[in-house]
Amino acid sequence: MGTEALSLEGVSIRLGKTLVLDRISLEVPAGSFTCLLGPSGCGKTTLLRSIAGFAPLAAGDIKVGGNSIATLAPEARQTAMVFQSYALWPHMSVAGNLTYPLKLRGLPKAEREKRANAILSLLGLEGYGPRAVTSLSGGQRQRVALGRALIIDPPLLLLDEPLSNLDASIRRSLRGELRRLQQKVGITTIMVTHDQDEALAMADRIVLMRDGQIVQVAGPEDLYSAPADLGAAQFLGVDNVLAVAPDDPAAQGATLVGFRTEDARVFTDDMEHPDAPALARKGKVTTCAYAGGGYQVGIDVAGESLSACSARPVSPGDDALLSVPASMLMSFDANTRLLQGIRH
Question: Longest Cα pair distance anywhere in the chain, in angstroms?
Fold first, then answer.
């Protein structure tokens, strides 16, 4: 299977008068799995489409293996793209869908069949060639769409939210399958997703985007523990933000601290309180809901609504202490830039 490095140099794209991508520069190592992550409208799908050749550049260059492909038509770029809808041909069999790109390239029938059988074996779909794609499950259709992309031996594999149409349990299972397949084949892969859990579980590197620009490029653990700024942190699940108080264990110069609900605990008067250094706030319980294995608690602290977890139920109206270990706090300066992330 072919694999090449990808280089984006000052890529900008306009749709009418709107600047959708603004001077994007990115290096994607050969054989890596990179996720483009961000909220809807941030430009991640447009960036993927620009690599495939479906979105013309207003400025910049795109190189694969050191060679510019920016002016080439999509079919001349030899990249392979799996769309969110899979775009399988319902009137064709599984084998027909797999081999059609090879037929367009003029490969003889024997070679087409040989490659199709190899791909079916790779995907764990041996014997499925004669079946109609309409008879397959969602997960099986996803594999066929992936196989049709891989069968042309592309230098790059582009995935546009390929798991978004599947049920949650199937999606979680296929994350691992897709990642293992990518590692086995060794192909340079770029995947668009808005699901942070999906990106964290699958990628070597995550490209976090916002408003047509790259905010941060980092490995999953680094991105989760040390997002570049408050906006990135909130997208990555930091759902509580407070002004720094004098006794808070925050970084020097911090004006704001943030933390995730799952890292905070609520204690009532009859519970044993923690002794370790922590951010602490007193307030009143407003809500308590079972969240599987524990309870998620809302607490009002001087008019601010915060949330935390509790091992046992508490009652709305109870006085309570919200506590967050110092190691699980993120500190931000007056410009909302990260000063200190989670310290494991």
Answer: 78
Based on the fold, state whether residues 220 and 257 are members of the same structural domain.
no
- Write the pLDDT tens digit of every residue in 235-259: 999 999 999 999 999 999 999 999 9
Which tokens hold the place of 8?
A: 């984006």
Q: How confident is the model at residue 152 (pLDDT cuts 50, 70, 90)?
A: confident
* CA-closest candidate to residue 203, choices 213, 215, 217: 217
Which among 215, 232, 249 is the end of a domain?
Answer: 232
DSSP 143: H
Count the Cβ atoms, other than its own, within 10 Å of residue 55: 19
Phi, psi (deg, nearest 5) at residue 48: -60, -45
Question: Residue 132: which of 101, 173, 166, 89 has the closest Cα?
Answer: 89
Residue 251 DSSP class: P
Statement to judge: residues 197 and 282 lie in one domain:
no
Q: What would the pLDDT profile of 36-78 be if each residue is shown by its tens digit?
A: 999 999 999 999 999 999 999 999 999 999 999 999 999 888 8
Say how far apart CA 195 and CA 208 lie, in whole Å: 11
Task: Tell me which amino acid residue 257 is.
Answer: V
